[in-house]
Task: inverse folding
C-alpha cells in the first residue's frame, strides 16, 4: 500500500531524513506554483462555469489513486484538481513500520530524488511478507526496489501532473468544486467533516461521492477509469444533478458492480 | 453603527431598483418578477446582496422575495442563497441595535417583516414539489433559520471565537417584542417540524433531498442539542433502505444517517451520552464492519475525555444551566431509568426536556415583563415578582411567558399552543394553582366549556336522562380530545382558544403532529385513556346512542379530531386487552337509552368563545378545569406510571365516581334495532369524513348486537366493501367478525345456532361481495379467509365454486380464469396459514386438479405439483390421489374420483391392488402383448372398456400424475404398470405426455433407468418412446445405453429399441447387430441408418457410408437369417440417399466389393444401380467389368447374368470390355444378345482393330466371312445412337 494505514500513523518514529528533506523543499518551493496549482487558482474563483464542472479527486496521500484519476481526467480535458486528506504523505518504506513520511507540499520531484537516493537493497528482507502485492509483481526483475514496487514510476508520473501533493483541509482557498470524488470511506468522512466545519457562505451545493478503490497500481488504474466515466456522466447531466443523482448512482453501481455513496454539502 | 452610510456601495443598483421598484405594498409583490429582470440581471443583483445590512435593503429586499418565483432556477437558487446569508445578517443587525439602543430603526423592522415573508415563502418551497436543487437550498435556509432563532447552548465550549454561528438568540441581551425569544423559538420549532415532516413522508421524496434533510437535522442537533430528543427518534425510525417513489440511493442515505449518528456520538451533550448504546447499536446495524467499530471507539474516547473535563469543571457549572438546575436534574433522573424505548419514562423525559427548552428563552428576558405590564394587567403581579426574585421558579417563568405570548395576539396564540402542549402536567398544575391565587372575587362571568355542556345536557334532556350526560360527557370529552398531549392540557389547549388557533391552524402544519413525544405522551396517559375506553365501550354495550354525542362533538371540533387517527390506533391497542373486562361489565343491568336528537341541539353553544375573550378567560377557566382533570392526573401520577397495573385499577375508581343511574327506559327490540341502525349509520358517515379508526370496535359491538337485522348488515357490508382498499373496510370487517365470533363463543350453550348463523351469513355474504365487487387480482378475499376468526362450512363451498369458476359451466370467460387463480391462491394461502384446514383445502385443490375444464385443471395441477406437493403433510395424500386417479382411468370405465372424493378413494385403491396381482399372474398368458406400433394390439385386449374413457377423461385424470412424476420419478413405475393394460385413448394420452416428462427428468434419472432395466410386460412401446425422447436432442447417457442394452439382451429382442442409441455405438457393435437392423421394416432401417451415419460428436459416425454398403453386401440370407428381399431393400434405401451415398462412396465400396471372394450376390445389381444413379461412373464401371472378366465372372451364373445385362446396357462403351472376353464367352454373349453383333463388328472396323484382336475373336465376330460388311458411313450414326442410349441405360434394364 502506498498510503500507510491509520495504524501506521500513530507510529511515533518519524523518518528523520525525510523531514529534513521536506524542510528544505518547503522553503524553496510553493506547491501551488506548479502547473496544476496555477490552473486551479485561476479557475478557483468561478462557480462552476457554464456546463463545465470542476472536479476534485481526493485520496489519502494525493499520490496514487487521486493522482491517477487526476492524470486521466486531465488528459480527458476535464477541469480537475486532486488532494489528500491524511496528516502526512506516507509512502511504503523498507518495512511496514518505517514508512517514508513527507509533508504535504513536498514536490513529487523531491520525493522522487529522496527515494532514489536512499533506495535500500532490500533483498535481504522477506519482502513478500511485507509487501506481497508489489513483490509479487516483479520480484525477479532487476532494478531498484522502489522502481520495482512502482513508487518511482508513480512519482515520475505525478511530476508531470502537478508539482506537489496538496492537503484537502489546507486548501479551502482553492475555490468551489462541483464534485469531489473520494476513493476511500475514511477520506470521504474527512472531506464531509471538513465541509461541515466550513461556514457555508456561497450556499452552493457540492456533490461528494465516495468510491472505494484499493490502494495499488492496478486498482488505481481501474478506479481512475471509473472516475472518468462518472465525471463525464455528471458533466453532461441536463439540469440539476440533484434530480438524477440517485438514479445515476444506482445505475453506475449496477453497471460496474461497485459500491458508491454520495453526500451533499454546501460552500 | 452607520446605517445607510455606505449605501453608495451599490449606486447603480440603488438607482435601478428605485426607479423600477418603489417600495411596493405587500399586496402586489407578486407582480414583481417583472420581465425587466432577466436572469442575468437578477443574478447580478442577487450577488450584490452581501451580508451588509443597510437601509437600502428595504428597497432591495422585495426583489429577493420576488425572485423566488423567477422562471430561471438559477435565480431562485441564488435568491435563497442570498436570503440565507441575509437572514442571519439582519438578525445580527437587529440584535446589535436592540442591545445597544433598546429599539429598532423603522427600516430594520420593515426589513425584518420582509425577511419573515421570505421565510414563509421558502418554507413553501420546501413543502411543495419542485426541483430538488432548489429545495436543498431551501433546506439549508431552514437549517440556518433554526440555528439563528434558538439560543446557542454553550457557545464558548464548542465554537472558538470567529467560528461561531452568525447569530443566535443567546446574543440578545435585551428584550424587544419583535425579537421575542419565545416567539422566535416557537418559530424555530415549526421549522424543525418541517424538517421532521420530510422524513415522515420520505417515500415521496428523492434520495438527494432526504440526504440533505438528514444532514440538516444532524447539523441542527449538533449545534442545538435541545432538539436531540425530537430528532433522534425520527432518525431512528427512518429506514434508509426504503423505496421512494422517485428513487433513492440507499447506501448514501445510510451513510448520511451513519454520519449523523457518529456526530451525535461524538457530541458531549448529556442526552447524547445517555443514548450512546442506541447509537452504537444503530451504527453497527447501518454499516457493520471494522471501520465503524474504529469510529465508535474513537467517538467514545472523545466523549469520555469531554466527560472527564466537564467533571473537573463541576464546581462551576456552565451558566446556561444555572436557572434550570432543578429541571435538568429531574431530566437526568428520568433518563437514568431506561433507554429511549417508547415507555412512560421517555414521555416524562421528553416533556422535561421540552419544558426546559421552552424555559430557556426566558433567561435573557429579565426585564421584558416591564413591557408586559402595559399589555396585560392580569399578569402584572407575577411579572413584578419575576423581576424581584432572582431564583424564579419555573412556574413563574411559565406564567410570564404565557403572559408575553398572550400579549402577542394571534402570533402569540400559535406559540402559546405549542408552549402549553409541551408543558409538563405538574408544571401546568402549578401554573393553574398559582394563577388561581389572583382570581377576582366575583365568580367568572364566562362559563367554561364543561359547564356549558353540562348545563345544556341538564336543560335539554329529560329528568330520567339527567345523569347519563355526565357520564357520556366524560366519555366524549376524552374521546374527542385524546390527541392532545397530556390529560391536563386538552382543556387549556382546545378550550382556551379554539377559535383563534384552531381556525388558523392547518392540522397538517400542527407542529405537534409529528412530534415524537406525542406517541410517547399517549403512553404516559395510557391509564386514563384506558379508563376512558373502558367506559365508552362499557356503555356502548348498554347505551347504543353514545355515538351520537360523539359525532356531534366532533363536528364542533373538527380540528382536534383531525388528529385522531393516530391516537385511534393507540387507543385501540390499549383497548384490546381490556375487552374481556368490558364484556364482564356488560352484565350490568343498565340499559339506558337516550333519544339521540338531543345531542345535535346541544352542541353548538360550545363554540361561542371569542378570541377577544381569550386572554381574560384563560386564566379563569383553567382553575375550573383543573379541579376535575388534574385530580385524575394527580391520582395517576401517584401510582407508579411504569406499572401497567395502575391502568386496571383506575377504571374502577372512576367508575365509582360515576353517578348511579337511577332509572332506565326500556325499549322494545324493534326500537333498539332502529336505534342501533341509526347509530351505526352515523358512525359510518362520520368516519367517512374523518376516518376515525378508533370507532371500529365500537361499530363491531353495535353490529354484533344488531346482527339479526339484514338492513344493517347490508349497510355495513357495503361500507366495508366500499372502503376495503384504504384498509379501513378490512379492519372493520375483522372487528365485526371477531366480535360476532366472540359473542358466538361466549353464548355457546344457549344461542349458539343463532349467532353462529349470523357469523356465517355475514362472513359468506361479505366474502361473496368481495368476490363480486373487487377484481380477481385483488388479494382481499384471500386475506379475509386467512384472517377471519373462523371459517364456516359454507365458506369452503364458496371457495370451491370460486376455484372451479362455477356459474359459467361450459365456457370460461376471460375474467373467470383469473377467478380460478384467485380461488386457488386462496386455497394455497389457507393451507399455509390455517393448519387445521389443510386437509379440507387440499381436497378442494385436488378436486380442481382433476376438473373437466382445462383451465381450472391446469392451474390446480400447477398449484398441487409445484407448491403443495412439497409440503410434507400433503405429499402422501397427493401422491395417493394421483395414482388412484391414474389407475382408475386406466382400468375403470367411468372414473369418478372427482365428484365424491372420499367415496371413490377406497374402491379405486382396492382395484389397483387387485389389478396389480392380476398383472403378475396373467403376464404369461399374454406373451405377445409386448409391442405394437401404435398400441393397437392392446386395443383388442381392452376394447370392451375403450368406449368408456374419452380423451378428455384420460387427460383429466392423468395430468396431475404426470406433473407429480416430474417431481418424483419413482412414480413412473405406476405408469409402466398400467400402461400395458390401459385403453388406447389412455395410451395416446400417455404418449402425448411422456416426451415432455422425460425431457424434464433427463436421461440420467436413476428411477427411470431402473424401470427401463426391468420394464414390465407390455410397456415396450413406452420404453421405446422414452428412449427416443431421451436421444432426440442429446447423446444418450451411459446409463441409458446400458439399461437399453440389457433390456435388448434379456427381454426385448426387438432391435428397434436400439435405434435411438445407435449413434453412440461403436463400429463392432453396430456391425454385430446390423443384420437385425436390416431386418427391420424399411422405415425403421432408414432411421437406424441415419443414426449410424450420424454418430456422436466426439466419436464420429460408427460406420462410413462405404462401410454401410459393404456391410449390406456382406450379408447373406443363409448366414444372417435375413431375407434377400430385405437386403435389397436396404440397398435401395442407401441409393435413395444420393447425398450420402455419393459417387465417390460408391466407387470406394465397389472397389472393395469386387475383390471379395466370393463376390457378393448383389454386387452386379449394385453396380447397375450405381451406374443408374451416377452415369458418370461409366468409366469406373468399365474398369470393374474388366476386373470381373479377370475373375472369370461367367463362372458365377447369378453375377454373369447381371454382367451381360450391364454390358448390353452400356454399349458401345462396353465393347472394349466385351472384346476382352474369351472367344467362347463372347460368342455366348452375342448369342444371347444378337443385336450386339452388328455394332460390335462396326466398332472393330472403325477402330481398325482387326490387326490387334485375336483371330478367334474376329472369327466369332464373323469378320472372315464378310470383311467389308460394315460401311464406314453408318458407323457414326450407330455410335451416336449407342451414345444416346447409354445415357439412359436404365430404360431397358431390369
Result:
Amino acid at each position: 500500500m502506498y498510503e500507510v494505514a491509520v495504524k501506521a500513523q500513530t507510529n511515533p518514529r518519524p523518518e528523520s531524513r525525510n523531514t529534513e528533506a521536506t524542510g528544505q523543499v518547503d522553503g524553496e518551493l510553493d506547491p501551488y506554483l506548479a502547473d496544476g496549482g496555477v490552473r486551479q487558482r485561476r479557475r478557483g474563483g468561478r462557480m462552476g462555469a457554464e456546463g463545465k464542472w470542476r472536479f476534485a479527486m481526493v485520496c489519502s496521500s494525493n499520490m496514487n489513486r487521486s493522482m491517477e484519476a487526476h492524470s486521466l481526467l486531465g488528459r480527458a480535458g476535464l477541469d480537475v484538481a486532486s488532494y489528500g486528506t491524511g496528516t502526512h504523505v506516507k509512502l511504503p518504506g523498507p518495512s511496514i513500520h518505517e514508512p517514508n513520511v513527507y509533508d504535504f507540499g513536498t514536490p513529487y520531484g523531491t520525493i522522487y530524488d529522496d527515494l532514489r537516493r536512499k533506495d535500500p537493497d532490500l533483498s535481504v528482507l522477506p519482502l513478500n511478507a511485507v509487501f506481497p502485492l508489489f513483490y509479487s509483481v516483479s520480484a525477479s526483475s532487476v532494478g531498484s526496489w522502489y522502481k520495482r514496487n512502482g513508487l518511482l514510476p508513480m512519482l515520475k508520473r505525478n511530476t508531470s501532473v502537478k508539482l506537489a501533493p496538496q492537503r484537502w483541509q489546507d486548501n479551502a482557498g482553492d475555490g468551489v468544486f462541483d464534485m469531489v470524488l473520494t476513493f476511500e470511506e475514511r477520506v470521504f468522512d474527512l472531506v464531509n467533516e471538513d465541509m461541515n466545519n466550513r461556514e457555508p457562505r456561497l450556499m452552493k451545493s457540492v456533490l461528494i461521492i465516495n468510491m472505494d478503490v484499493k490502494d495499488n497500481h492496478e486498482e488505481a488504474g481501474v478506479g481512475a477509469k471509473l472516475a472518468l466515466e462518472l465525471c463525464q456522466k455528471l458533466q453532461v447531466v441536463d439540469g440539476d444533478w440533484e434530480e438524477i443523482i440517485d438514479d445515476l448512482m444506482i445505475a453506475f453501481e449496477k453497471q460496474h458492480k461497485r459500491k458508491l455513496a454520495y453526500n451533499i454539502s454546501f460552500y | 453603527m452607520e446605517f445607510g452610510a455606505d449605501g453608495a456601495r451599490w449606486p447603480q443598483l440603488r438607482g435601478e431598483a428605485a426607479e423600477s421598484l418603489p417600495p411596493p405594498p405587500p399586496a402586489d409583490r407578486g407582480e414583481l418578477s417583472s420581465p425587466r429582470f432577466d436572469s442575468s440581471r437578477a443574478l447580478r443583483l442577487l450577488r450584490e446582496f452581501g451580508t451588509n445590512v443597510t437601509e437600502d435593503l428595504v428597497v432591495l429586499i422585495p426583489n429577493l422575495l420576488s425572485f423566488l418565483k423567477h422562471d430561471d432556477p438559477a435565480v431562485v437558487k441564488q435568491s435563497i442563497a442570498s436570503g440565507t446569508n441575509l437572514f442571519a445578517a439582519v438578525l445580527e443587525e437587529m440584535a446589535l441595535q436592540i442591545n445597544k439602543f433598546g429599539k429598532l430603526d423603522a427600516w430594520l423592522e420593515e426589513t425584518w417583516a420582509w425577511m419573515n415573508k421570505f421565510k414563509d415563502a421558502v418554507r413553501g418551497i420546501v413543502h411543495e414539489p419542485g426541483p430538488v436543487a432548489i429545495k436543498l437550498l431551501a433546506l439549508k435556509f431552514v437549517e440556518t433559520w433554526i440555528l439563528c432563532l434558538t439560543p446557542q447552548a454553550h457557545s464558548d465550549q464548542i465554537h472558538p471565537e470567529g467560528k461561531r454561528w452568525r447569530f443566535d438568540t443567546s446574543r440578545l441581551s435585551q428584550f424587544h417584542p419583535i425579537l421575542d425569544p419565545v416567539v422566535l423559538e416557537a418559530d424555530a420549532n415549526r421549522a424543525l417540524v418541517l424538517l421532521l415532516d420530510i422524513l415522515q413522508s420520505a417515500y415521496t421524496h428523492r434520495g438527494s433531498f432526504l440526504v440533505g434533510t438528514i444532514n440538516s437535522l444532524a447539523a441542527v442537533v449538533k449545534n442545538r442539542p435541545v432538539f436531540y430528543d425530537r430528532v433522534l427518534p425520527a432518525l431512528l425510525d427512518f429506514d434508509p433502505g426504503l423505496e421512494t417513489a422517485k428513487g433513492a440511493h440507499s447506501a448514501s442515505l445510510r451513510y448520511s444517517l451513519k454520519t449523523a449518528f457518529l456526530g451525535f456520538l461524538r457530541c458531549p451533550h448529556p442526552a447524547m451520552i445517555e443514548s450512546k448504546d442506541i447509537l452504537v447499536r444503530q451504527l453497527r446495524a447501518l454499516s457493520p464492519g471494522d471501520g465503524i467499530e474504529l469510529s465508535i471507539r474513537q467517538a467514545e474516547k472523545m466523549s469520555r475525555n469531554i466527560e472527564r473535563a466537564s467533571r473537573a469543571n463541576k464546581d462551576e457549572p456552565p451558566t446556561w444551566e444555572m436557572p434550570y438546575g432543578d429541571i435538568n436534574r429531574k431530566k437526568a433522573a428520568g433518563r437514568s431509568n431506561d433507554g429511549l424505548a417508547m415507555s412512560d419514562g421517555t414521555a416524562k423525559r421528553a416533556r422535561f426536556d421540552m419544558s426546559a427548552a421552552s424555559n430557556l428563552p426566558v433567561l435573557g428576558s429579565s426585564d421584558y415583563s416591564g413591557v408586559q405590564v402595559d399589555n396585560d394587567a392580569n399578569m402584572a403581579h407575577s411579572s413584578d415578582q419575576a423581576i424581584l426574585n432572582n431564583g424564579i421558579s419555573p412556574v413563574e417563568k411559565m406564567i410570564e411567558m404565557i403572559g408575553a405570548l398572550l400579549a402577542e395576539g394571534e402570533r402569540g396564540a400559535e406559540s402559546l399552543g405549542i408552549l402549553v402542549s409541551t408543558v409538563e402536567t405538574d408544571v401546568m398544575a402549578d401554573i393553574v394553582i398559582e394563577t388561581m391565587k389572583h382570581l377576582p372575587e366575583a365568580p367568572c362571568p364566562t362559563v367554561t366549556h364543561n359547564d356549558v355542556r353540562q348545563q345544556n345536557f341538564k336543560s335539554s334532556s329529560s329528568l330520567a336522562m339527567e345523569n347519563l350526560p355526565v357520564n357520556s360527557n366524560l366519555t366524549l370529552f376524552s374521546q374527542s380530545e385524546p390527541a392532545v398531549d397530556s390529560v391536563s392540557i386538552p382543556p387549556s389547549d382546545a378550550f382556551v382558544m379554539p377559535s383563534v388557533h384552531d381556525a388558523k391552524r392547518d392540522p397538517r402544519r400542527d407542529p405537534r403532529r409529528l412530534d415524537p413525544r406525542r406517541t410517547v405522551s399517549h403512553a404516559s396517559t395510557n391509564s386514563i385513556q384506558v379508563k376512558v375506553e373502558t367506559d365508552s365501550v362499557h356503555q356502548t354495550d348498554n347505551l347504543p346512542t353514545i355515538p351520537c354525542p360523539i359525532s356531534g362533538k366532533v363536528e364542533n371540533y373538527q380540528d382536534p379530531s383531525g388528529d385522531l387517527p393516530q391516537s385511534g390506533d393507540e387507543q385501540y391497542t390499549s383497548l384490546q386487552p381490556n375487552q374481556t373486562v368490558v364484556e364482564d361489565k356488560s352484565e350490568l343491568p343498565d340499559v339506558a337509552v337516550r333519544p339521540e336528537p338531543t345531542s345535535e341541539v346541544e352542541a353548538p353553544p360550545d363554540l361561542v368563545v371569542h378570541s377577544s375573550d381569550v386572554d381574560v378567560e384563560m386564566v379563569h377557566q383553567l382553575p375550573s378545569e383543573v379541579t376535575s382533570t388534574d385530580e385524575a392526573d394527580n391520582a395517576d401520577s401517584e401510582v407508579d406510571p411504569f406499572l401497567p397495573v395502575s391502568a386496571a385499577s383506575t377504571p374502577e375508581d372512576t367508575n365509582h365516581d360515576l353517578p348511579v343511574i337511577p332509572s332506565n327506559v326500556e325499549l322494545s327490540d324493534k326500537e333498539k334495532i332502529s336505534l342501533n341502525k341509526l347509530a351505526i349509520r352515523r358512525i359510518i358517515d362520520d368516519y367517512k369524513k374523518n376516518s376515525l379508526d378508533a370507532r371500529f370496535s365500537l361499530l363491531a359491538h353495535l353490529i354484533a348486537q344488531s346482527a339479526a337485522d339484514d338492513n344493517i348488515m347490508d349497510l355495513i357490508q357495503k361500507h366495508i366493501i366500499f372502503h376495503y382498499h384504504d384498509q379501513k373496510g378490512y379492519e372493520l370487517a375483522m372487528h365485526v367478525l371477531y366480535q360476532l365470533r366472540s359473542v358466538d363463543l361466549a353464548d355457546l350453550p344457549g344461542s349458539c345456532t343463532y349467532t353462529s348463523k349470523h357469523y356465517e351469513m355475514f362472513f359468506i355474504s361479505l366474502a361473496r361481495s368481495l368476490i363480486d365487487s373487487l377484481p380477481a387480482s385483488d388479494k382481499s378475499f384471500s386475506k379475509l379467509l386467512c384472517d377471519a376468526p373462523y371459517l364456516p362450512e359454507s365458506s369452503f363451498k364458496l371457495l370451491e365454486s370460486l376455484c372451479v369458476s362455477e356459474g359459467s359451466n361450459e365456457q370460461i370467460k376471460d375474467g373467470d380464469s383469473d377467478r380460478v387463480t384467485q380461488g386457488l391462491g386462496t386455497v394455497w394461502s389457507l393451507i399455509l396459514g390455517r393448519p387445521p384446514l389443510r386437509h379440507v383445502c387440499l381436497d378442494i385443490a385436488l378436486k380442481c386438479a382433476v376438473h373437466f375444464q382445462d383451465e381450472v385443471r391446469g392451474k390446480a395441477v400447477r398449484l398441487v405439483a409445484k407448491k403443495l406437493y412439497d409440503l410434507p403433510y400433503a405429499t402422501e395424500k397427493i401422491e395417493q390421489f394421483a395414482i388412484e386417479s391414474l389407475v382408475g382411468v386406466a382400468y375403470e370405465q367411468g372414473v369418478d374420483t372427482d365428484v365424491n372424493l372420499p367415496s371413490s378413494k377406497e374402491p379405486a385403491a382396492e382395484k389397483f391392488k387387485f389389478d396389480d396381482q392380476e398383472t403378475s399372474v396373467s403376464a404369461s398368458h399374454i406373451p405377445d402383448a409386448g409391442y405394437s406400433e401404435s398400441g393397437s394390439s392392446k386395443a383388442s385386449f381392452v376394447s370392451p372398456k375403450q368406449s368408456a374413457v374419452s380423451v378428455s377423461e384420460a387427460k383429466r385424470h392423468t395430468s396431475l400424475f404426470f406433473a407429480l412424476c416430474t417431481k418424483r420419478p419413482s412414480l413412473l413405475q405406476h405408469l409402466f404398470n398400467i400402461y400395458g393394460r390401459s385403453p388406447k385413448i389412455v395410451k395416446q394420452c400417455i404418449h402425448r405426455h411422456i416426451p415432455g416428462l422425460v425431457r424434464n427428468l433427463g436421461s440420467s434419472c436413476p428411477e427411470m433407468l431402473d424401470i427401463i432395466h426391468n420394464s414390465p410386460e407390455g410397456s415396450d412401446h413406452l420404453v421405446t418412446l422414452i428412449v427416443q425422447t431421451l436421444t432426440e436432442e442429446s447423446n444418450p447417457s451411459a446409463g441409458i445405453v446400458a439399461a437399453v442394452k440389457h433390456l435388448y439382451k434379456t427381454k426385448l429382442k426387438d432391435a428397434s429399441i436400439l435405434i435411438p442409441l445407435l449413434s453412440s455405438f461403436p463400429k463392432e457393435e453396430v456391425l454385430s447387430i446390423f443384420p437385425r437392423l436390416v431386418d427391420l421394416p424399411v422405415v425403421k432401417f432408414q432411421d437406424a441408418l441415419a443414426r449410424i451415419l450420424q454418430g456422436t460428436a466426439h466419436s464420429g459416425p460408427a460406420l462410413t457410408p462405404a462401410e454401410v454398403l459393404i456391410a449390406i453386401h456382406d450379408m447373406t440370407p443363409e448366414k444372417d437369417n435375413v431375407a434377400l428381399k430385405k437386403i435389397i431393400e436396404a440397398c435401395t434405401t442407401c441409393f435413395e440417399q444420393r447425398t450420402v451415398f455419393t459417387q465417390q462412396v460408391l466407387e470406394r465400396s465397389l472397389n472393395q466389393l469386387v475383390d471379395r471372394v466370393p463376390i457378393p450376390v448383389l454386387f452386379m445389381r449394385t453396380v447397375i444401380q450405381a451406374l443408374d444413379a451416377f452415369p458418370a461412373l461409366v468409366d469406373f464401371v468399365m474398369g470393374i467389368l474388366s476386373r470381373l472378366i479377370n475373375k472369370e465372372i461367367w463362372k458365377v451364373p447369378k453375377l454373369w447374368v447381371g454382367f451381360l445385362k450391364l454390358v448390353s446396357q452400356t454399349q458401345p462403351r462396353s465393347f472394349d470390355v466385351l472384346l476382352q472376353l474369351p472367344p467362347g464367352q463372347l460368342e455366348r454373349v452375342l448369342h444371347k444378345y444378337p443385336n450386339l453383333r452388328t455394332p460390335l463388328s462396326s466398332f472393330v472396323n472403325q477402330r481398325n482393330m482387326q490387326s490387334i484382336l485375336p483371330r478367334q475373336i474376329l472369327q466369332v465376330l464373323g469378320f472372315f466371312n464378310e470383311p467389308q460388311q460394315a460401311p464406314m458411313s453408318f458407323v457414326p450414326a450407330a455410335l451416336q445412337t449407342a451414345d444416346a442410349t447409354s445415357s439412359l441405360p436404365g430404360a431397358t434394364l431390369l
Remarks:
- Residues 11 and 97 of chain A are 7 Å apart (CA to CA).
